[in-house]
Please model this.
Amino acid sequence: MSYSYFGKKILILGIGLTGISCVNFFLKKGIKPKIIDESRHPIHFFKLPKNIKYHLGSLEHKWILESDLIIISPGISSFKPILVQARLLGIEIINDIELFAREVNLPIISITGTNGKSTVATMVEKIAKNAGYKAFLGGNIGTPVLKLLYKKADLYIVELSSFQLENVFTLKSKIAIVLNISEDHINRYPNGFQQYKKIKLSIYNQAKICIFNSKDNVKNLIKNKNKISFGTKKSDYHIYDKKKCSILYYKNEKILNTCKTLLYGRHNYDNALVSLAISDAMKFPRNCAIDALKNFLNLPHRFQIIKKDKGIDWINDSKSTNVNSTKIALESLNTKGKIRLLLGGDSKSANFNILKIYFRKLNIKIYCFGKDGIKLLKICKEKSTYIETLEQAMILISKEAKLGDSVLLSPGCSSLDQFSNFEERGNLFIKLTKEINS
Model:
């Protein structure tokens, strides 16, 4: 289906990387949109092409209500009253992913999930390239998808957050996958977890092949008959754990021994398993997948070993922005001494009580910091202490950590209360770790 945007009043919400890519998309078509940003000083404003009408500091209601088409950036909630009103008036609201989906005729591998999206997307990209394909990765991982349109490609790999899935309607993925679903961004969704889950599962709409996690009990919610499962012993793809290594299987076929990889952490074995399922579904040569996975290193800020010094492991898991990611990190640790967990930031109204059982049975001390640090302290008071900032917590840990301990930054929270993003938080942890151990 061909879409025409000529003669329409087009408005873009958000002057971030996504918003700028949308402006350039329309300019290439000979169309000048307007653009709005709620910030008075958006950091990417200097990238805005000249002669584009803009409004800063608020969502200009007049511009919104006189538009024919609104392109919304993922950082802006679809549930703001003015946008709800616009929809009721029949104004079309979509996002850059929808614009991309309308333009593309090549295979798309779409990946979402509460945790592990970036790692799996990057693994799949490396496998595809190892197999000789011109594969390009974009979306939530950093490169706006509209930029991918101008590359000579064989296929696209798109990482999607729930925010990005909110306003997508015509995405026809060759393969769609939901890695896992657990509580996250509950403060974004008026109807809570079930609404978040429904949005995540919408990735399967119109997909040719649906890969799902058996642990999430979503099989009956996927209408597509072409389904592949992973995650449990009865799934198509599963893991057999031994004392030292784990073995990745497809049905009864042994595929990969994790001892022959550079992967660290049980959750990364799950990520490798899913990447194999995607690779097989794409019919990439199995040896290309295995070679790529054997040489794959953990991505920065994702259970990244920063230093092993004086018998102490320092682990940067700053990408942990929800409670389930902290749970996974704790399950992946093998520590002789005490776990010194840095937990805190903006909890996004999530329920952290699921960590109680772990805190009680583990040899752990929890350093709670940031906006919701005091609230998190109450989960396990006898093993916790409150410190205002990450830096202050690290100074305290440097005095307390002993031989055999693991220092784990796995905050389980958004970083935006004290940092511009999780990378800045992780980079501070890396800097402080190096200073402490110098």
The CA atoms of residues 355 and 361 lie 10 Å apart.
